[in-house]
Amino acid sequence: MGDIDNCSILVEFENGVIGQLETSRNCAYGYHMETEVYGSDGCIRIGMVPAKDRVTYMNAGGVSQECVSWYYEYWEPTFRAEMQDFVDCLLQGREPLVGLEDGYRAVEWAVAATEAVRDRKVVRLS
Questions:
Q1: How many domains is the chain built from?
Q2: Domain that holds residue 103
Q3: pLDDT digit string, tens, across residues 23-56
Q4: Which of 41, 48, 94, 118 has the smallest C-beta neighbourhood within 10 Å, fewest atoms?
Q5: What's the CATH number where 65 sits?
């Protein structure tokens, strides 16, 4: 499709915090999307194992987890939560947790990441 399938991107924020994003749509276990942000005071990891049912199997053969088989299965809980929050905003008359600026920045980052990978260069965003 002309997009990036397997990719790892390193980002550095103005305050020195480093972030790493990894993705693979067509990996052997279905889908992989991992984000890690770390700094001097700690670290947060998101999406490390695309576990299907949050069950870890341990036996004489080792430790394993069944993984989701494709993109929509992996993201379905997120999509549902976003739709529910949208409905809750309408019912409660409140602003969404994520706004237009957040959506704009996400697209800006995606375009910059594509440019960095395509041109094999560092891309700086203000």
A1: 1
A2: 6-119
A3: 877 777 767 777 888 888 888 887 766 677 767 8
A4: 41
A5: 3.30.360.10
